[in-house]
Amino acid sequence: MANRRGRPRSEAVRGAILTAAAELAAEGGPGAATIDAIARRAEVSRTTVYKWWPSAAAIVLEGLLESVRESIVRPPGSSTIEALVHHVSALNAILADPAVGALLRNVIAAAVGDPAIQAALLTQWIEPRRGAVVDSLTDAVATGELSGDTDIEVVVDALVSPPYYRLVFGMPPLSEHRVRALVDAVWAGCS
Amino acid sequence: MANRRGRPRSEAVRGAILTAAAELAAEGGPGAATIDAIARRAEVSRTTVYKWWPSAAAIVLEGLLESVRESIVRPPGSSTIEALVHHVSALNAILADPAVGALLRNVIAAAVGDPAIQAALLTQWIEPRRGAVVDSLTDAVATGELSGDTDIEVVVDALVSPPYYRLVFGMPPLSEHRVRALVDAVWAGCS
Amino acid sequence: MANRRGRPRSEAVRGAILTAAAELAAEGGPGAATIDAIARRAEVSRTTVYKWWPSAAAIVLEGLLESVRESIVRPPGSSTIEALVHHVSALNAILADPAVGALLRNVIAAAVGDPAIQAALLTQWIEPRRGAVVDSLTDAVATGELSGDTDIEVVVDALVSPPYYRLVFGMPPLSEHRVRALVDAVWAGCS
Amino acid sequence: MANRRGRPRSEAVRGAILTAAAELAAEGGPGAATIDAIARRAEVSRTTVYKWWPSAAAIVLEGLLESVRESIVRPPGSSTIEALVHHVSALNAILADPAVGALLRNVIAAAVGDPAIQAALLTQWIEPRRGAVVDSLTDAVATGELSGDTDIEVVVDALVSPPYYRLVFGMPPLSEHRVRALVDAVWAGCS
DNA sequence: TTCTAATCGAGACGGTACGTCAGGTCTTCTC
DNA sequence: GAGAAGACCTGACGTACCGTCTCGATTAGAA
């Protein structure tokens, strides 16, 4: 396997940029996380930033995805309803976290009007998470827990959209108790 | 009756600005609806725009609110479930409308990082609509259709957030049939 | 003689405007004496100002001319040299006065690039004063005090330009003693 | 020898800006030489102009100083009076030149109300020129040509201020013959 | 070791939009 | 008809950030 020639990319620089972007986005909103400001805070040349990312939002998104890489695991040996509660609860906790929530809001704002961010957000954030819920529900249909003519997409929507909705509009996040109530109601309604 | 002094505000100018902002936001996203561009398209002086609105997003929001002023009416003589279907269906239709949906996405993006827009969006758009649903559900509790310990906020969230979720992330809107399935499931789950 | 119709022009308004303009010009230089600022300080409508003067500099000039209307009188029974000293000394005193000097500097700055101000400044300020000196020198030629081939314009220039020069470039004004030395030298040189 | 890092400053850009400013100031007066107009005519970005100069007048002044860098040389082997005639004549010629005269008028106008321009004008234009005349006169005192109690400042004022005076008030410039007469008269008056 | 290719840093430059200010014009009402 | 009040347009202001560019300095593997 051939090693590249030339000076290798500095991991320290990459990390400093991701950190700086995350801090700025969390503190001052999308207006603060400009490429200029990121470069200044990371003590890095603007040129270097432009070399690796196309926009400030792309940096924030990359940091966001890196910080929440795990967490789509279904607890082994759990019932369907428990798996759903687990998933929605975890999602809700992530979005309610002030740091992560602020980052995601910034990325969502940037996705409007930047198709690249939009696509990355969809394929790298939304779809994996939906997929996990879809899997749980598909299993439930297979075992007969759920009727075969259940519209799974609708159920997923009802389960996962409330946390996003509250985040996006700046409403207080759902409590653990309400998450439980939400999943119970939806589950009861379709089983 | 006291007549105002000075030259009266031109309604033509206001209309041209709202229209221009709506067109730009629908066409090119939040990046396109700058105050400069709005003033140019409306053939109006930039200073005039600044005199009446604090930001481009405020213009878009005002136009949006003006264009969907009605539409929170509960059809008379309807059952609770019918009223809910009516409401969610209407909401979904509004958000699925390419023009209105694009405008709202822009406003949502602007609300991140602009507390004034955020507050206006919440009090003038979100809350009235939630209120209508809350009313229907409160009536249902009063008539015994719904159990007294139902958490109404949770039910509202489950009903109204999916259309926003799909709009925000650029997913295809819910079909009429799926709206019906959503309301049925949630209703069944909590009654 | 028929009286004019309509409301007569308010003398109070005119005075307030002239005063405000003079104060602003003296305090903050030409940048401060804008029509907006003058109208604000005089507590007068901008429209009214525009109705009577074409520019801020015109107001300052009018106030300036009004404040130094007299002062071109030759002391009776004086010799030519005494008359010259009197004139240059008076001119120097006027220009050295902080208030008047500041106003004149403003008007001079405005005259560059405003032909109307330029013409008014020349005919209403410069020429009357030069005329007085020219008269004294012409008399001196007539009485034989001065040679007939003296170039009077040159002598006038040498006498009156230093105070303006020092005002325009912000140099300290001539002392009374130096004014005397100046007139003596020029007089000695041409007689 | 240390080489500079970064992209070197474009001399072409600097020259284009100075030229454009000079042309605009000469043509249209101080109102025409705005930074916007200069940038447009020089086909240069406005931000670049702001990077190097604080105001339009500073550009005009820099161009002016550059265009008349030489010209304070005393002709070798000349008598004092010849040196004075040479200097005043050269000064008068410069100020009478339509291009240079217009530029200087603009700068003078800008110096009122801009202390930085005022100071630069004084130290970089006025004082070097006065200094040359002062030197000639000091020499003359040393050689006994001039009395020791001559007030040199006064003599300098009498010699150099007339050309400025005529320029500033838009009067026709002195002819060569009148310059000679001026220097002769002042010299005769103090020797 | 030297060459070579890449990263990284510094800074100039052309742009676009920002929000503000002043100059003017016009319209309406009041004295 | 004078004056007040205020809407509107024009155009320049100075700033911030964008993205591109041209350099020099640094750091490695490859020749």
UniProtKB/TrEMBL annotation, chains A, B, C, D:
Q: Which positions does the record tag as DNA-binding? A: 34-53
* Cross-referenced Gene3D superfamilies: Homeodomain-like (1.10.10.60), Tetracycline Repressor, domain 2 (1.10.357.10)
Q: Superkingdom of this entry's organism? A: Bacteria
- Tell me the keywords, alphabetical order: DNA-binding, Transcription, Transcription regulation
Q: Which InterPro entries match?
A: Homeodomain-like_sf, HTH-type_TetR-like_transc_reg, HTH_TetR, Tet_transcr_reg_TetR-rel_C_sf, TetR_C
Annotated GO MF terms: DNA-binding transcription factor activity; transcription cis-regulatory region binding
The HTH tetR-type domain, residue ranges: 11-71
Q: What's the protein called, per UniProt?
A: TetR family transcriptional regulator
